[in-house]
Specification:
The chain has helices spanning 6-12, 18-31, 49-54, 67-76, and strands at residues 39-43, 59-64, 82-84. By secondary structure, it is an alpha/beta fold. It has a single domain (6-84), classed as Vaccinia Virus protein VP39 (Rossmann fold, 3-Layer(aba) Sandwich). The protein has a 3-stranded parallel beta sheet. α3 (49-54) links the parallel β1 (39-43) and β2. The longest helix has 14 residues, at 18-31. The protein is globular. The chain starts with 5 loop residues before the first helix and ends in a 12-residue tail after the last strand.
């Protein structure tokens, strides 16, 4: 969807408080009995802003269907594994 306009994605969603949303994700993981640290997969990671905030607590990886958004995420998150895959059916060879 954003392959041709990935540079506009962050501007379009500039109203979002990514650190607060990432904190809510972490709270949900902990409330469900999940770990406070370890590996976490950000499905539909977009440009990587949630993964960037979650990296303080987890070894994050990202996955998105859109190559343009993944390119932006790669710039934001050097060294973080990012996967081009469809969330409806993927196998990254491990669990999170």
């Amino acid at each position: 969807m954003f392959t041709e306009t990935a540079e506009l994605y962050d501007r379009l969603y500039s109203f979002k408080d990514y650190p607060a949303e990432a904190a809510q994700v972490r709270e949900s993981v902990l409330a469900a009995g999940g770990p406070g640290e370890g590996a976490l997969l950000d499905v539909a990671c977009g440009t990587g802003k949630h993964a960037q905030a979650l990296a303080a607590h987890y070894a994050v990886e990202g996955m998105d269907l859109d190559q343009g958004l993944l390119a932006a995420a790669r710039e934001r998150l050097p060294g973080v594994p990012l996967h081009h895959a469809d969330m409806r059916g993927f196998d990254l060879g491990r669990t999170y």
